[in-house]
Amino acid sequence: MTLPKSKEAPTSNLALDLVRVTEAAALASARWLGRGEKEAGDKAAVDAMRLVFNSLDINGTVIIGEGEKDEAPMLYNGEKLGLGKGPALDIAVDPVEGTNLLAFGRPNAICVVGAAPAGTMYNPGPSFYMRKLVVPEAAKDVVDIDAPVPDNLRKVARTLGKDVDDLVVFVLDKPRHQLLIQRIRETGARIQLHSDGDVSGALMAADPRSEVDMMLGTGGTPEGVLAACAIKGMGGRILGRLDPQSYVEKEAILNAGLDLRDILTTDSLIKTDEVFFAATGISGGTFLQGVKYIGTGAVTHSLVIRGKTGALRYMEAHHNFDKLMKISSVDYD
Predict the structure, then answer these.
(1) What's the CA gap between 294 and 331, in Å, rounded?
(2) CA atoms within 13 Å, Cβ hemisphere of 97
(3) At 91, is the secondary structure helix, strand, or coil?
(4) How many angstroms separate the CA atoms of 234 and 242, rounded?
């Protein structure tokens, strides 16, 4: 059958391969839930991710990783992933978003992966922090990162058909946000304060099913790129601006040729609709349920997104360890 010129034949959804990566990382790292050893939990996730990634028919390069090569065994910036014979991809990873959450058994630790064609993913270079504003699709055209906080809150509330005091705003509970928190409270909106979970907060703000209506504040620049991978498909909006938290970081950013005045958007962070995202819950919480061990195996819950089609899949997977361990080199015990 010949398709009309305006149509395209369906292509494979790489996110369905990426979710195997995040599931493996979640299953491996969840064994460390509440044990107080964040490095061990993170390493378990990294090792599982690397093994599964290197079974995929991709030619991937880590753009958003966990530092430089000398910090191995973490998935480092510039590391090559995959069998090397598939599509060339930029890869963003956070094997455990919320290592402290995992270590202390707190909610919302997740495993996260994003992928896009090579050259289309924003490389933050030496930037560690960026100021962010995230809203769902319904409010994507009414916000301005340079507008006063009360103005943005009122516009979002009006667009969502709510009173300002109905809004819930996700904010990281950090000293740098004292004035922001004060302004949100003075305007009348409610706040969810989280110690960690930068990507989770952005996804909750973009997801119209979530009780969170908006995310504000300064968080990780790499996490902003990861969140943009998902928001491309979810239809919300992320706005950002690099926000160095030290003189050393500011100088490194300027020396790298990055402009601190630039406003980063969903489309400048990810310059294509052909982007894929997967996240799997580790410790459970308001975003994704955590790993549940059931003796013979485990149950995981994941979010899988393809940017081009806007398809969101919330997946529950039941893993049989007896069968899985016969074919997998990942140690889930």
Answers:
(1) 16
(2) 34
(3) strand
(4) 23
Radius of gyration of the chain (CA): 20
Instruction: Report pLDDT for 66.
Output: 79
**Residue tagged 């980063």 (tokens):** 264
Report the residue count for the chain: 333
Amino acid identity for residue 93 in this structure = V
Phi, psi of 94 (to 5 degrees): -140, 90
H or E element: which one contains 133? strand 129-135
Contact 43, 69 (CB under 8 A): no
What local confidence, expressed as pLDDT, does residue 328 receive?
61
User: Coil, strand, or helix at residue 210?
Assistant: coil
Q: How far apart are CA 132 and CA 130, in angstroms?
A: 6
In this structure, which amino acid lies at residue 315? Answer: M
Helix 198-206 / helix 221-234 crossing angle, nearest 10 deg: 20
CA distances from residue 52 to 74, 83, 223, 293 in whole angstroms, order as listed: 15, 11, 22, 21
Give the pLDDT score at 332: 58
Supply φ then ψ for residue 267, to 5 degrees: -80, -20
Q: How far is CA 119 from the centre of its chain?
A: 19
- CA atoms lying within 13 Å on the CB side of residue 17: 16
The torsion angles phi and psi of 303, rounded to 5 degrees, stand at: -115, 130
All residue ranges of the chain with pLDDT < 70 are 1-11, 67-73, 324-333
210: its two tokens: 């979530």
Instruction: Calculate the alpha carbon distances from 285 to 3, 101, 108, 239 in Å.
Output: 44, 11, 5, 25
pLDDT of residue 284: 83
